[in-house]
Amino acid sequence: MKWLIIIGALAFPFAASAFDQTPRPNSRLSGTIAVTNTFQSIAVAETFRYGCTIQNNGAATMWVFFGPIASATKAGSVVLSASQSVSCNSAGVVLTDQISITGTATQEFYAGVQ
Does domain 23-113 bear CATH number 3.30.70.2190? Predict the structure, then answer.
């Protein structure tokens, strides 16, 4: 009987930690490009991000950069033509960097971050 109590006590911390991983609700951070060819932040870097999707809802090309906004360049960005999207999830890995976007002023984008 003593062994069951000890085994149960050792297993409990591992079982309890699974309950701490409740997914967060989606945050919609959609908007429009404020200034042509100037990167604007969509989401800050976040260690516990579960996923994200950014979609170009405009007619002009947009560029999405994952990393510090101070380092954002079009050459280092994901290019999104009209109606294209990018996800920060790939093969079980989620990018947790800051997310920034640029394009042509007044063009709309969708951004969902979880």
Answer: no
